[in-house]
Design goal:
Keywords: Membrane, Transmembrane, Transmembrane helix. With about 400 residues, the protein is mostly helical. About 70% of the residues lie in helices and about 0% in strands. The chain has one domain. The protein has a two-stranded antiparallel sheet with strand order 1-2. It is globular. The N and C termini lie far apart (about 45 Å).
Length: about 400
């Protein structure tokens, strides 16, 4: 019981706080914003109840059914990550070292500055093999594209109908049926998101947890969730508040149902972890483009700048994650005289395709940085072209 080293415990706490704080934007952000009249403790109690239920379901679902490396069934243990880390070829098991905690610390710092980075990439990259990392990127890019298309297509219809009705009838937004619908959508969204992202937190702990270890981990997450609610979502919440009509409980409800549906689809599609942040950003970007195309108080250029700003920050987070996964073990091996295992061994081996992948990903930092420093019309087009080219090239290689 509690055979967890200090670095694993530290990494777990850092990841739990960063993941809960960062992803409050996408999962609970609209819920917190549109229910600002309620005390934070009421909202926390609701979210905590769903978290406990989802955790218990995932843990008990695998309880006593896990197997070790020899194929023997392990009794009296469970896995709360919903099988996201089952593939040990893509997500190997080894002792947590100091360098595994650095990405979680970096994520926590970025969260304090309100940067919408992907927790899956930041936390899991250093634990994944190159095959596991590319699988996550592929699934996340497909998630962004599908979410963008859904948001754009659906809101081209809703912007002139439902959303127009909402704007003209603002006094009706707190009717009981909409409150019930929003709390229902939040229940589904929060639970499905937890099924996707528990892996980002529990990767620091043994894949098979004893009951007391599971209870202790759950207690830590609940405390950190309470802090997030007390801060009303934290700095990342500013990203959501910059979008159109998200404080309207009716609009927020539609967003939550769409996002939950997308996450559920990808959860059922495969057990590969993915960036829920990229899916959320794609959905919101498609929605904002639809509003601009229908002439609602903004222009396509302004929407492009906002969407590309979010995407540039998320891309920088991805590249930094890859570089940390590649560089931190080198530092550790140098300090320890070559000791210590590292999952991304293939990144060290001089493989030409791996090297090309690393160079190309870091090259994206240039248009991203130039755009964030000066989002002119030209830089907007350059960044959009660079992103599209990189995505098509990566997916082409990954699918082949």
């Amino acid at each position: 019981m509690f055979e967890i080293n200090a670095w694993a415990a530290i990494g777990f706490v850092l990841a739990a706080y960063a993941v809960v704080g960062n992803d409050a934007l996408q999962t609970l952000g609209t819920f917190i914003t549109s229910n600002g009249r309620l005390h934070w403790s009421v909202l926390f109690g609701f979210a905590a109840l769903i978290l406990v239920a989802t955790f218990t379901y995932g843990y008990c679902q695998s309880y006593g059914e896990l197997v070790d490396a020899s194929g023997q069934v392990l009794s009296g243990v469970g896995d709360p990550s919903f099988g996201r880390l089952d593939n040990v070829k893509k997500y190997p098991v080894f002792d947590v070292q100091w360098y595994h905690t650095v990405p979680a610390l970096g994520l926590l710092i970025l969260t304090r500055f309100g940067v919408p980075v992907s927790t899956s990439f930041m936390v899991l990259a250093v634990f994944a093999s190159i095959e596991g990392l590319t699988s996550m990127i592929k699934k996340s890019l497909l998630g962004y594209g599908l979410a963008f298309a859904l948001g754009l297509g659906l809101y081209l219809i809703l912007a002139k109908t439902v959303e127009k009705h909402f704007s003209a009838n603002g006094h009706a937004q707190n009717r009981k049926r909409w409150v019930l619908l929003q709390w229902t959508s939040t229940t589904w969204l929060w639970s499905v998101w937890l099924m996707q992202d528990f892996a980002n937190i529990f990767v620091f702990l043994p894949r098979q947890l004893q009951p007391m270890e599971a209870i202790a981990g759950l207690a830590v997450i609940l405390v950190l969730l309470a802090i997030t609610f007390a801060n009303r979502g934290g700095p990342v919440q500013k990203v959501l508040k910059s979008k159109t009509s998200v404080t309207d409980i009716r609009s927020a409800t539609i967003i939550d149902f769409l996002f939950a549906g997308l996450l559920y689809y990808f959860k059922e599609r495969s057990k590969i972890p993915m960036s829920t942040t990229w899916v959320f950003l794609g959905l919101i970007a498609g929605r904002e483009y639809a509003f601009a195309m229908m002439g609602r108080k903004t222009t396509l250029l302004n929407v492009s700048r906002i969407a590309l700003s979010d995407l540039a920050k998320a891309t920088i987070g991805l590249v930094v994650s890859i570089d940390m996964a590649r560089g931190l073990p080198w530092i550790a091996e140098g300090l320890e005289g070559g000791a210590g295992a590292f999952a991304l061994v293939s990144l060290h081996g001089g493989n030409s395709s791996t090297l090309a992948f690393l160079v190309a990903s870091n090259a994206l930092l240039i248009p991203c940085g130039l755009f964030l420093m000066r989002p002119s019309r030209m830089q907007t087009w350059v960044l959009a072209g660079s992103m599209a080219t990189a995505a098509v090239a990566f997916l082409g290689i990954a699918i082949r």
